[in-house]
């Protein structure tokens, strides 16, 4: 890092960063840091929490396992240990991320929550990024946004929720079902979180109802012993997406049955087409569907309103619940801190779409990692490409500087 000084007007300590400034120390921030380290590019990482990968460490439930096979989830230049299972647990994944950071000597600045980032140009036309976190202004040529598409919980407004007397929590606060034994629990939302939390509640002896308000795709996590995701990726190399979607639906129908019988209707678009169009990830079933079929998880429709102990549904049914878990998804927080014309994204289906951010590279040296909608696999690819781009710029800049100092170079 460069020298620091205290600016007069805002009482901010100013720090000059001689390379990119990375915002967020989750898998994406670590991946880009490692790729930059490999190229000898200096960087600074700011992380708002006091640990690496806060989503995984602080905001996910105990039973969580990766649902894509490990070869799709490892970060660049450092594979998972051989003894890891095909679908590593959350603890294993966190341990891997810790050893990843250690291996590449990545030491984020913890407790630095970025409150604003803005590209400012001086009167002579020279522009730099100014990023404010923890009463410090970081000045840099490049900013890498690695705060993720799951930075903030989505908590929809429901009529009467404020008078509901039972416990209400977001899925990011759920750890395990211990406290819900024998209770009536309503899980709202049937993405992968809602499905897996419902299953875990079931395993813990809760009576579970699951709100399914729209159509969705459920796929088996594995097909004939191989991961459904790996098979889809393999088939996409040989066949058009339309065919792969057809195969996934036909196979799912054969193995999982007709899910519309239990209130889960498939959308018209196939799972991969829908993922590309809206960012909505299909549910990869790890056992919830059989609990739904056996009636241990009861599918219910959209909520009309809450009363002190009951929930009224749009179809007129009324049921009593002790607790509500809102598995209603997440959203990015980038729009709240990235200023000026730098962020012109629109939120679509809770995911960042239609903005430079879903394309990795913006104007004036801003980049993003982990917003291309391809999970950890996508984040690793983004990291390689962004590091290459920044590395190239830095070496031509260095060449330019040294030719100024030594004109014979
Ligand atoms: C329950 C759950 C399970 C998942 N399982 C899988 C899976 O199996 N496979 C898969 O590919 N994907 C999975 N995902 C998607 C997952 O989000 C990504 O794969 C991965 O965590 C993305 O990493 P990231 O670094 O981009 O974002 P995150 O992991 O969210 O990390 C972002 C970091 O940025 C920090 N941060 C945020 N805002 C600021 C700020 N303003 N200033 C400073 N720091 C900030 C956060 O504290 C956090 O540490 C899962 C998501 C969830 C919620
Ligand atoms: N094992 C794993 O690897 C896991 C991976 N994940 C991943 O994490 C990411 C986040 O997943 P998740 O937390 O499930 O979030 P999602 O955004 O995927 O799902 C949110 C769900 O909440 C529903 N919802 C939102 N608002 C309401 C409302 N007002 N009333 C009723 N339902 C509502 C949505 O329905 P609608 O579609 O109608 O808007 C959707 O079904 C995903 O990428 C997912 O794949 C999550 C858990 C486990
Ligand atoms: O776990 C997630 O949410 C992911 O984004 C991983 C992922 C990307 N593309 C997919 C297609 C089908 C299933 C999971 C994913």
UniProtKB/TrEMBL annotation:
<dbReference type="InterPro" id="IPR036188">
    <property type="entry name" value="FAD/NAD-bd_sf"/>
</dbReference>
<dbReference type="InterPro" id="IPR020946">
    <property type="entry name" value="Flavin_mOase-like"/>
</dbReference>
<comment type="similarity">
    <text>Belongs to the FMO family.</text>
</comment>
<dbReference type="InterPro" id="IPR050982">
    <property type="entry name" value="Auxin_biosynth/cation_transpt"/>
</dbReference>
<dbReference type="GO" id="GO:0009851">
    <property type="term" value="P:auxin biosynthetic process"/>
</dbReference>
<dbReference type="GO" id="GO:0050661">
    <property type="term" value="F:NADP binding"/>
</dbReference>
<keyword id="KW-0274">FAD</keyword>
<dbReference type="GO" id="GO:0103075">
    <property type="term" value="F:indole-3-pyruvate monooxygenase activity"/>
</dbReference>
<dbReference type="GO" id="GO:0050660">
    <property type="term" value="F:flavin adenine dinucleotide binding"/>
</dbReference>
<dbReference type="Pfam" id="PF00743">
    <property type="entry name" value="FMO-like"/>
</dbReference>
<protein>
    <recommendedName>
        <fullName>Flavin-containing monooxygenase</fullName>
        <ecNumber>1.-.-.-</ecNumber>
    </recommendedName>
</protein>
<keyword id="KW-0503">Monooxygenase</keyword>
<keyword id="KW-0073">Auxin biosynthesis</keyword>
<comment type="pathway">
    <text>Plant hormone metabolism; auxin biosynthesis.</text>
</comment>
<keyword id="KW-0285">Flavoprotein</keyword>
<keyword id="KW-0560">Oxidoreductase</keyword>
<dbReference type="GO" id="GO:0004499">
    <property type="term" value="F:N,N-dimethylaniline monooxygenase activity"/>
</dbReference>
<keyword id="KW-0521">NADP</keyword>
């Amino acid at each position: 890092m460069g020298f620091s000084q205290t600016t007069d007007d805002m009482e901010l300590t100013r720090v000059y960063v001689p390379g990119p400034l990375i915002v967020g120390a989750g898998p994406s921030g670590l991946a880009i840091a490692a790729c930059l380290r490999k190229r000898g590019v200096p960087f600074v990482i700011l992380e708002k929490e006091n640990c690496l990968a806060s989503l995984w460490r602080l905001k996910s439930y105990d039973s969580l396992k990766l649902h894509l096979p490990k070869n799709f989830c490892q970060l660049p230049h450092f594979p998972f240990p051989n003894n890891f299972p095909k679908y590593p647990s959350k603890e294993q994944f966190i341990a891997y991320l810790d050893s990843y950071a250690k291996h590449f000597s990545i030491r984020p600045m913890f407790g630095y929550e970025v409150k604003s980032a803005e590209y400012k140009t001086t009167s002579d036309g020279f522009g730099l990024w100014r990023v404010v976190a923890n009463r410090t202004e970081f000045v840099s040529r490049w900013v890498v946004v690695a705060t993720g598409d799951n930075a903030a919980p989505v908590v929809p407004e429901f009529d009467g929720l404020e008078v509901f007397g039972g416990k209400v929590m977001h899925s990011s606060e759920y750890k395990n079902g211990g406290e819900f034994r024998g209770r009536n629990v309503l899980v709202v939302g049937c993405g992968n979180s809602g499905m897996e939390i419902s299953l875990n509640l079931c395993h813990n002896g809760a009576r579970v109802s699951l709100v399914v308000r729209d159509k969705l795709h459920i796929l088996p996590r594995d097909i004939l012993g191989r991961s459904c995701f790996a098979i889809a990726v393999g088939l996409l190399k040989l066949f058009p997406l339309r065919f792969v979607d057809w195969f996934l639906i036909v196979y799912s129908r054969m193995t999982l049955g007709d899910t519309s019988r239990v209130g889960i209707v498939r959308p018209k678009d196939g799972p991969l087409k829908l993922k590309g169009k809206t960012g909505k990830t299909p549910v990869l079933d790890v056992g919830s569907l059989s609990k739904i079929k056996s009636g241990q998880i009861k599918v219910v429709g959209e909520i009309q309103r809450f009363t002190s102990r009951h929930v009224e549904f749009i179809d007129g049914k009324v049921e009593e619940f002790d607790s509500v878990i809102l598995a209603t998804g997440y959203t990015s927080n980038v729009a709240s801190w990235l200023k000026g014309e730098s962020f012109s994204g629109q939120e679509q289906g809770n995911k960042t779409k239609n903005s430079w951010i879903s394309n990795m590279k913006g104007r004036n040296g801003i980049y993003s990692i982990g917003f291309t909608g391809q999970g950890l696999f996508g984040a690793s690819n983004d990291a390689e490409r962004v590091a290459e781009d920044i590395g190239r710029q830095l070496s031509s800049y260095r060449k330019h500087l040294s030719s100024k100092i030594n004109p014979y170079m």
